[in-house]
Amino acid sequence: PRLLSWNGRLWLYFAVLGANSTDFEPQGSRTSLRLGPGQWTEPEPVFPDTFIPWRIHADEDGGPQVMGYVGGAGVYDPEAPPIEIHWLRTDDGLGWSPVVPGQPVVQRGGGSETDWVRMDDGALVAVVRNEAGDELGWGSKVCRAEAGSLGDWRCVGDPRKYDSPLMFRHGSDVWLVGRRTLEHEGLFD
What we know:
Blueprint: E1 2-6, E2 9-15, E3 29-36, E4 39-40, E5 44-46, E6 52-59, E7 63-70, E8 83-90, E9 96-98, E10 105-109, E11 114-118, E12 124-134, E13 137-145, E14 154-158, E15 163-170, E16 173-179
Antiparallel strand pairs: 1-2, 2-3, 3-4, 3-5, 6-7, 7-8, 8-9, 8-10, 11-12, 12-13, 13-14, 15-16
């Protein structure tokens, strides 16, 4: 579940998953708007099919934005299509469109869970959990996109897998909070 507090409203976004606790079966996402104490609207579909909303930020410049992914059901299937990371924005909490016009997908490959921060110069810095692996290996990706070309991510691989990445800025410093294994020097593979 993800909560978005924006324009005096509280939105709940969540993924619908299958009934098998040992299988990852994304079946779309839903949203509900808080009406008052204990009162919410009926959940309604939002985002593309099988989309998993990962992190939502209420960006003061461009309105709310979400980073999420599709293709997660095939994360452990080497024959599955690559996972796609989408970066979307909204004006009303229900309709979402690409942050980069005409380019909803900003990364393809083994990455899924993604968080990002924007730098003072408008550039984006992101961390992507790369559990399915790609040309950069397995673990994580650390990415940057310049302000003038936010759809052109330049990534380097990190052999440690940061699960549930959460990023924030404190002054000019970028912080990453995430789970990782402490065994094998933290290496995923």
